[in-house]
User: What shape does this take?
Amino acid sequence: MGLPTPDTGHLRQTEYATVYEPAEDTYLLLDALENDREELQAQRPTICVEIGSGSGCVSAFLGQVLSPYGALILSTDINPAANNATRETVAKASSESVFDQCRTRFVQALDGRLRGKIDVLMFNPPYVVTPSAEVDSTIEAAAWAGGVLGREVLDLLIPQVPALLSPGGRFYLVIIEQNKPEDIIAGFAALGLAGQRVLSRRAGIESLSILRFTKPVL
Assistant: This one.
């Protein structure tokens, strides 16, 4: 039997109207994490970070994946409602992990303290192909509007990832086919991170995939 999906029923409250609700892309990431459960537990991560946590479903689920071991799981989002929603979601999670939330873009407010220390990094970025003007045009659009190739937000993070990960650290990334996944994998390879597509699924008109990147242990 698989692990239960975290309870996000509180998102029905009006105060969370701007929060991205769990959808097929969320569930695909949950499946990828669960598929890697044995490897993740063997890794014994101490610091994990979800960028753009939205509902907090992924952060809470990672806590279950790592159980009976625990880690510090940090969730970041630029939407204060998402920070609060994540706080409620993880509070209901059955996990030995310690959870914390931070309102920031990517990990900017925490960068100095996290550099080279993140064992598991997760990001379901705004990947929908849109005009550049739609990127961050509203707090809701910030969760889905990705600009040219759906990559404008992701491309800002990519150069930072190698320095953030610990040796052996993993980065899980949600993408769609229009984001040109092979180009993303090649770009990370040039930065020294090995990557591969670990899971794919069709969801309506979107072809979703999870890419996993690993920093070498020197």
The chain has a mean pLDDT of 95.
